[in-house]
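Hi L.,

As promised, Stage II sporulation protein M:
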Amino acid sequence: MREGLFIKKNKDRWERIQNGASKDADEVAKDFTRLVDDLAYAKTFYPNGKVTPYINGLAARIYLNIYQNRKEESNRLIKFWKYDVPLTIQKHHLIILLAFVLFIIFFIVGFFSSYKDPTFVREVLSDAYVDMTERNIEEGNPFGVYMMGNSFLMWLGLMINNIVVSFMYFAKGIFFGIPTISSLIKEAMRLGAFEFMFYAKSLGTKATITILIHGILELTAIIIASSAGIVLGKSFLFPGTIKRWDSLRIGLKDGVKIVVGLMPIFIVAAFFEGFITRYYNMPLALSLLLLAASASFIIWYFIIYPVKLYRKLVNTRQNRFPKIHE
C-alpha cells in the first residue's frame, strides 16, 4: 500500500485520537492497540516517511497519559509549582502587566498627592499611624514599627493577614474585577503616601531599601493576586468564543491556581518582615544582597521561567505531532 493511501485510510482516526475525543478507558486502550499496529506497519514499509514519527508521537502520548497518572501523590505538589503555576502565570502575563502598571501609576499619585496636600497622608494612613511614625523618627528609630512585638508572632500574623487579603482581592473579582482594581489602587496610593512620609524627612532612600527587604516579595504577590481577581472578572465579561459560564469556570480555576501558587511567597515575605526588616540598620551591602536575591527570584519565576517553559512546551508538541500531508 502506498504511504499516501495508508494516510488517507487512517487520517480521520488519528486526528480524533490527537484531539483527545475519546475519554472511555476501553476506547483509549483500543486506540492504543491499533496505533501500535499502525506504527509497526509504518516502520516496516515507510521507515523514512513522515507518517512514522507522527504515529509514534500519538502512541507515546497515550502511553504517557496512562502511566504518568500512576505517579505518587507527592509529585503533584512539585508539578503544581513547577508547571501549573508558571504556565498559568504566562497565560495571563498581559493582565499581570496591566496590574503592575496600575500599581506604579497610583503609587506615584499617592506620593504626589501627599506632596501637594500634607493632610492626604493622614487621610489614607490614619492619624494614629502617622503620629506613631513621626514619634519614631524624632526618637531616631524611624522604622520602629517593624520592631514591635515577638518576631515569630509577627511573622505568623503577617502571613495569615496577607494570605487572607490575597484571597479577598481574588474573590472581589467576581464583580467584574472592579472591586479588585479599586483595592489595588488604594493599596498603591497608601504605599505612595507612606513613602512620601519618609521622603519629607529626608529618609526616602532608607525607607525604600527597608520596605523592599520584604516588600519586593509581598507587593509582587499582592499585585499578582489582584491579577487573579481581574482574570476572574474578565472571564465572565469577555468569554470569547466559548460559553460565558464555561469561560467563568476556566477563569475561576486559573485564578485559584495563581493565588494558591503565591502562598510560599507570602510565607517568605512575612518571615522577612518579622525576622529581618527589624534589623534595618544592617550593612547596606547585606540589604542590597537581599533585595537582589528577591528581585532575581521574582523576575525568573514570574517572567523568564514561564516564557521558557511555554516555548519548550510548544516546541515539544510541534516535534511530537508534526503535521502530515498526503
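The chain has a mean pLDDT of 87.

Thanks again for sending the construct details.

K.
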